[in-house]
Amino acid sequence: MQKIGTLFGKIISWAVVLVLIVFTVYPVIYALLGSLKTNAELTLGNSILPAVPQWQNYYTAFIKSNFLEYGKNSLIVSLATMALAVITTSLSGYILARFDFAGKKLMTVSYAAMMFVSIGAVALYPIMQMLDKIGMSKSMLSLVLVLTGGQITNVFLVQGFVKGVPKELDEAARIDGCSIFRTWWQIIMPLIRPILGVVALFTFRNTWNDYITTLVMTMSNKKLTTLTVAVVQLKYSVFAAAEWHIMLAGASLAIIPVLTLYFFTNKQFIAGLTAGAVKG
Amino acid sequence: MKKTGIKRGWKENAQIYGMLAPNLLLFLLLSVYPIIWTCRFMFYSYGGLGTGAPAFVGLDNFKRLFTNDPVFWISVKNTFVYAAGKIGLVIPLAFFSALMLNKKTLKGAGFLRATLFLPTIMSSAVMALVFYLLFNVYNGEVNKYIMRLGLTSLPINWLGQQHAMMTVIIIGIWGGLGNYMIYFLAGLQGIPEDTYESASLDGANWWQRVWYITLPMLGPVLKMILMLSIVIAFQDMSTVMVLTEGGPVNATMIMFLYAYQFFFPIAPGSMISTQFGYGAAVSVVAAGIVGIVTVIYLVLSRKLDDIY
């Protein structure tokens, strides 16, 4: 057990931890509390709590700024991407874990290489061009497909997990006449629920929070804008200089759903982070 | 597993490839194709709609990049400064936090860990907006607090040319601390208790235990964490994009953001002329620089392995 020797050392160490906690939490609290303040309170004022909670800030953001619509988009897109990610990664993860096939080495190596090779958001241009050519650049389906992507990390995650499922179970099912696909669906899927939960959680969060990809993909069709993109765009709007309270109400709207999700599932988030990452 | 002696029927092969197809297709179209596109068009001059067809210009883009583009090299410098600053601070802090919050018996350690992990959950773009307000020169809480506490008499221009990079690094640390802490915690759990006990019996104090037991035994985990932090730090773009848009006067312009602006506006309405060919060249060189850094890191960390 790590014990810090002197009492003085202990006090300093815990003071540092306290500072880190405050540092971490402060911006979030600021956004949440600030969303209920008046603009004057935010810019000139000095109090932590709002004098009178200005719930109408949320009304302004919701109704006048269309955030209800954008929130709906965020929800649909995040859920759809989450579902697609779970399905595609579990299909690939299972096959990779159990079967050899022509091109498997190539596939594995390219996937691993792409984890480190990245040309950044510039990749969105050829993607948009390609979608434009087939007339799909304005659909929500394209947005979902692009946000799902190759899911490289998650594929490896699922693959590793499936390796931990005894092969005998597959083989018994196959001997009984189950096709590979049915084995996947009826035997494997129920058994890999924990890792699928991790994939689902992380995909949902990444999609909800995504800015650049969604921004670019919705440039030609503003109706698809998600909440995160809409909120950040407030910075460039007429609200920017004069209406901090609306910006913070918008920001709070964008972070409250994920915050709530986190409140209930933080153990899974934290456990999921190290699920495949740390090998001894 | 190879089924020796039993040939796989076509039906099985069809299923295997069919099940791989969705994920593989997305990978090829969304990860591989853009790279091929970029590697092709970096040899072209290509201005987008209305400026004519792409024209092959050979190495002209690279000539311009290496001899006539000071802003790009500023962005390279900025990227390294950001990565070094962020990694140099967040890794020790994360390690420290992991050490402190590793106690399973401490009531509330779980709560503290979950709290420090919170920033990872948030959208970095949305939080950049919040930080934009917090670091505002006259009305931002940060300046309000430090002036009220009497630490300075003049407000600090956190987002001004002089300090913007430091502010971006601070926000980067904010976002990454919990993330790396969790990785360290996972690594720490792999170190058996008795190693510490026998060391204590031999008279080792806390510092010696960390230095001689914890760090060496964390070796592989530390390597992975550093690798991850390097890759993330070099690709991190949304915070800068929202907070400072690369400014002021390129003070926070980082490589991939610089490449991005040849394709899309950084902020609505701030479009410069599109230059896809040149932008492609910039992206490839940037990716190459990251690749070189990665390789250097891997070589160095292998050497460190030999020492230990």
Order of helices and strands of chain A: HHHHHHHHHHHHHHH
User: Which structural class is indicated by helix and strand composition of chain B?
Assistant: mainly alpha
Q: Gap between N and C termini of chain A, in Å?
A: 20 Å
Average pLDDT taken over every residue of chain B: 88
Helix content, binned percent of chain B: 55-70%
Which percent range fits the helix content of chain A? over 70%
Low-confidence stretches of chain B: none
Architecture per CATH nomenclature, i.e. the level-2 architecture of one domain in chain B: Orthogonal Bundle
Radius of gyration of chain B: 25 Å
Residue share in β-strands of chain B = under 5%
Describe this structure as you would to a colleague:
The complex is a heterodimer of chains A (280) and B (308). With 280 residues, chain A is mostly helical. Helix content of chain A is 72%, strand content 0%. In chain A, helix 4 crosses helix 7, helix 4 packs antiparallel against helix 11 and helix 13 packs across helix 15. The radius of gyration of chain A is 23 Å and the shape is globular. By secondary structure, chain B is mainly alpha-helical. Chain B has a domain of 175 residues: MetI-like fold. A two-stranded antiparallel sheet of chain B has the order 1-2. In chain B, helix 3 crosses helix 7, helix 3 runs antiparallel to helix 10 and helix 4 crosses helix 7. The longest helix of chain B is centred in the first third of the chain and has 32 residues. The model of chain B has no long low-confidence stretch (mean pLDDT 88). The chains are: A mainly alpha (280), B mainly alpha (308). At the A-B interface, helix 1, helix 4, helix 5, helix 6 and helix 7 of A face helix 1, helix 3, helix 4, helix 5 and helix 6 of B.
